[in-house]
Amino acid sequence: MTTREHRRRGRRILGLTFDGKPIYEPSANASGLIIAAMGGGKTTCGAMPAIQSLLADRDQALFVNDVKDGEIAAQIAALCKAYGRKFGIVDPYAVLGADNPHRIELNPLSAVQVADSEGHVDVPVILDKVTNTLIEEPSGDERNRYWRESPRDFLHTASRIVLAHNPRLLTPGGLYAMLADPHTWGSALACEAADPDSAQRCDAQRLLALKTDNAEHYTQHLNAAVSALRLFAYSPLDEDGRRAELTHAELLRDGWVVCLIAPARLADRLGSYFALHTLSAMEAQLTAGSGRACFVLDEFCNAPLREAVTKITLFRAYGLKCLYIAQSRQDAVRRYGEREIATLEENCTVKQWFKVSNFEEAERLSRAIGEAVSVTSSLGLSTEQPALSTTLNTGRQRLFTPYELMSLPDDEQILHVAGLGFVHCRKIRQNQIAPSCNLLGDNPLEGGRLTPDPKVWLDAGTEETP
What does the record list as coiled-coil region(s) (predicted)? Predict the structure, then answer.
């Protein structure tokens, strides 16, 4: 039986109660965290229901990290058209076909170009974020900071030189072409150092002095900078972004639904590419006039998305929310650090556990859910009386033991909602949400299409309310 729901737009459906009633997130601006081991339904029960819930809100842009062979984009293309949404895919490897009508080209560094063209004073700050994305700063390794900061200096200076002369060429591939050619890079530094009007004169002179005084370190730092861009040395990413006609800011303002696609086998190697796109989109969103947006960050531990983790405290004020999806909490801690993930958990209004397969995580979650008063009975036999006696004892026991959490049925989950507490409920699958379940395409990764089995009807915003 389908429950027809009329509710405020922009709220994600989280699951179903055991009697079939839908559960929604408490706020339209709430970020969320989903933890699910392999096979836990991260896409089917997490990312897809989120997109289906939010499509009717045409004032909210959607950016989806679709790194598993474009399985999300393939399913929602027709759905977006039916809902009247602008839909695009960034698919440099042509996973869904070179002639796919939804392919668009974006420059991963468009945030820098837009800030420079509009005369913003934060261009150096954005460039610092770009260089820290390309050369990530690990926590607790201050001793070797010099060997990371100096290559970032090369990237920063090269970016400013390109911006000063031809901003259109500021792409990752363009930066690689400049830095990888010793003659081109040396000539660029020499020209800037000799130009008294150049804003990059001091930086160029400083790097040339390093080359003269310590040629070994200069070469090491330059090679490290080139290595950070090696991904963009070859086709198809060497030319990526040069023919871009749209920017991330324009997509956000116009309420697009955009999927960033990659072959599943290359997802971890392409992390910096998708991180640059996410950074540009977030920079555009964290400025006035960009509207509202939701970022669905599937497998967010595969990419250096530190900005998306550390800046979560600002998102709500700028109409931005994120749905973070990971295999386990331990993966996130290894990638970003314990303190950063603790901050992320504090600021995610909703946390969901679809499948727990890690022993430490099961114990941690079991303790967090808490205990309840329990009553146990025992039988006794006295030597003075032949009859049995019954004794009742009170104590405390966990509501969910680690064993029970690791043995949750496939259709059940644990929710934590800020201000409410823990909820044990059913998952909701993409084929249980009408009318969108009837419009979904085939999943190219898993093959075929789930048979529609509607449990909840969400207004699409196109039909008349009865």
Answer: none
